[in-house]
Amino acid sequence: MIAAIVVNISPVLLQLGPIAVRWYGLMYVVGIVVGIQVAMPYTRARGITDDQVWNVVGPCIVGGLLGGRLFYVVQQPLGPFLAQPWRIFATWEGGMAFFGAIGAVILTLAIVCWREHLPYWTLVDGAAIFAAVGQFFGRFGNLVNGDILGAPTNLPWGVIYANPNSFAPSHTIAYQPAPVYEMVCDLILIGTLFFLKDRIKSPGILTTIYLIGYSITQFLVFFLRDSEPIVGFGLKQAQLTSIVVFVLALGLGYWRLRAGKVEPVATTSQLTDTA
Questions:
Q1: Partner of 159 for a Cys bridge, out of 36, 61, 177, 191, CB 3.0 to 4.6 A?
Q2: Rounded mean pLDDT of 131-141?
Q3: Domain range enclosing 235
Q4: Rounded distance, CA 79 to CA 95, Å?
């Protein structure tokens, strides 16, 4: 090996007695906060108030975290989780499947927007911006954890997860930096969404672009990830999911382009009347 990048950061940022503050959880909080702040100008420009956004944020965060974790768990050997059911919610051990989070948020938004009489597709487009930004920060937590890995490598940008508390199988060999590849893909996706967000007039198309872009990047990056098994057709579970989401996103885009209208925005009086 010619050179390597050594990451020697403990996944535990701070230990307060029995309570451990972990980089993974902290970066999720940072991603959520920054993602909301970045997405709000988009929704404000379309007549949705900050109060209306906050009405959907809480349920969507809960739904997204649960969906992401449960979709990860069902893809793993279930024996350890059945033996210790509390581990299903042990997110500090790493393990979130973002496709599960995406699906859960889309469903949660549908329910909340129906209940609150809010413009669904406009808010889903805002959620796409939020998700792309939040993912970027979440991948930093993966990098510290060493919980998503590429194959062992001799490339000069290979990463050695030297800290003994990291989840990497070896703390002395270099792996392809899969989280960094994902962060680069996230930046490209964020740039694409920001370039198009004020040029697209049909609600739902920005979501379509996000789903298509994310599916493509996941399909490609998982060829370099070595911590997940091949499950069928020479592909990994996330790649098979990517194909399904890609096809569904194409159908969604066609439908939303045919709709081609601006959604009405709920007024404060409407919200008061339905409370």
A1: 177
A2: 92
A3: 5-148+156-261
A4: 16
What total of structural domains would you count in the chain?
A: 1
Question: Tokens 């007039």, residue?
Answer: 201
Per the CB < 8 A criterion, the answer to whether 172 and 154 are in contact is no
> What pTM was estimated for this model as a whole?
0.87
Within 13 Å of residue 261, how many CA atoms lie on the same side as its CB? 6
User: Collapsing DSSP states into helix, strand and coil, what is residue 15?
Assistant: strand
Euclidean distance between CA atoms 34 and 192, whole angstroms: 18
The answer, yes or no, to whether residue 272 has pLDDT greater than 80, is: no
Question: Do you know the residue count of the chain?
Answer: 275
Using CA atoms, how far apart are residues 99 and 68, in angstroms rounded to an integer? 7
Q: What is the number of H-type helices and E-type strands within the chain?
A: 9, 7
| Domain-located, residue 270 | no
- Rounded to 10 degrees, the C-alpha dihedral 104/107/113/119 comes to 100
Q: What is the pLDDT of residue 93?
A: 64
Give percent of the chain with pLDDT exceeding 70.
91
User: How large is the greatest C-alpha to C-alpha distance in the chain, in angstroms?
Assistant: 68
Residue 273 belongs to some domain of the structure? no
Instruction: In whole angstroms, give the CA distance from residue 210 to residue 48.
Output: 21
Give the alpha-carbon dihedral of 81, 86, 90, 95, to 10 degrees: 20
Work out the average pLDDT over 169-181.
Answer: 92
C-alpha–C-alpha distance, residues 172 and 114, integer Å: 53
Q: Cα(253)–Cα(154) distance, rounded to whole angstroms? A: 42
274 located within any domain: no
The answer to whether residue 271 is domain-embedded is: no
Inter-residue contact 24 to 144 (CB < 8 Å): yes
Q: Which 8-state DSSP code applies to residue 171? A: S
